[in-house]
Every structure is written in structure tokens, then in C-alpha cells.
Design brief:
The chain has about 180 residues and is mainly α. Helix content is about 80%, strand content about 0%.
């Protein structure tokens, strides 16, 4: 009798996990569409006539703000910690510095090789100050944070919430 109850509980857990995955996928897809609709409503061409960065920036900002609002609501309702704290600042700073140095070195080597072999990228827009700063600003400040919130913080935390506190504690120990 005990095995049957355990098996039913496991099946319920798997079903709940599957439903959560589907809900997260639908939410991410809908949020992407909403971000696009908001970006379409704004006159991005006024600031970015070559469509290099403004539309995609508005799209990502919209996604990020809505995802943050949902995260705030879920954290209050479910008493869930999405781990947006600073963590170990000393260790984090060390990782960022090491990553930045390695990334800059690899990037420099790759671009030197692309220059030597005449393989530099060609852009669909002129490389003027506005386009360069806008594109770099998007790539450095919006792309990563918006996607981390929507595609990592929200799904991982919610899936761990469903799995239970013991799995959640183990995961946070390994991951963070």
C-alpha cells in the first residue's frame, strides 16, 4: 500500500513539474511577443534610423521589467528567494576581473586574426558614434541582464520551488 502512495506522489510531482515547464515556456513566448509589440509602438527610428539597437533595446527592457514585476509578485506570494543579492563581493569581483581579462585577450586575438585575414564583420548600418554606442550599450547592459532574469532566475527558482526545499538547498549550494 505504501509503494502505491509513493508512486502516485511521484507521478503528481512529475505532472506538476511538466505543467510548470509548459507555463514557463508559454510565459517566455508571450513576454517576447509583448516586448515586440511595445517596441513597435514607439518611434525607434527617430533615435535609430538604421534599426541597429533601439527596437531590440525597448524589446529587452519591456521583457525585463515585466519579468521583474512577476518575480516581485511571486516572491511575496510564495515566499521564494530569487537570489538577487550581491553574494560574496570579493569572490565575485575576482571572477569578473579574471573573466574580463581572458575575454579581452581572446577578443583582441580574434580581431587581430580577422584583420590579418580580411574577415572583419560587415554591419548593416554605418559605424557612427550613435550606432556603435547604442549597439554596445545594448549588448553590454541589456542583453545579458534581461535574458538572465527571464530565462534563468525565474525558471530555475520556480522549478526548484516545485521540487521542494531539500532539492532547492542542494541546488543553491552547488550553483551559487
Amino acid at each position: 500500500m505504501m509503494k502505491m502512495e509513493t508512486k502516485q506522489a511521484d507521478q503528481k510531482q512529475i505532472l506538476l513539474y511538466g505543467i510548470m515547464i509548459l507555463l514557463l515556456l508559454v510565459f517566455q513566448k508571450v513576454l517576447s511577443k509583448v516586448g515586440g509589440m511595445v517596441a513597435d509602438l514607439l518611434p525607434c527610428e527617430r533615435f535609430d534610423p538604421y534599426k541597429a539597437f533601439a527596437w531590440v533595446s525597448v524589446h529587452h527592457i519591456t521583457e525585463m521589467l515585466i519579468a521583474l514585476a512577476i518575480i516581485m509578485i511571486l516572491s511575496k506570494l510564495l515566499k521564494v528567494d530569487f537570489s538577487f543579492g550581491l553574494g560574496d563581493r570579493k569572490k565575485g569581483t575576482k571572477y569578473v576581473v579574471v573573466f574580463t581579462v581572458i575575454f579581452a585577450g581572446v577578443t583582441l586575438i580574434c580581431h587581430i586574426l580577422m584583420l590579418i585575414y580580411n574577415m572583419l564583420p560587415v554591419y548593416d548600418f554605418p559605424l557612427n558614434k550613435n550606432n556603435i554606442l547604442g549597439t554596445l550599450g545594448f549588448q553590454l547592459l541589456l542583453s545579458g541582464p534581461a535574458e538572465e532574469i527571464l530565462y534563468r532566475a525565474l525558471p530555475i527558482t520556480m522549478l526548484l520551488y516545485i521540487l521542494g526545499k531539500s532539492v532547492c538547498a542542494s541546488w543553491r549550494y552547488v550553483y551559487y
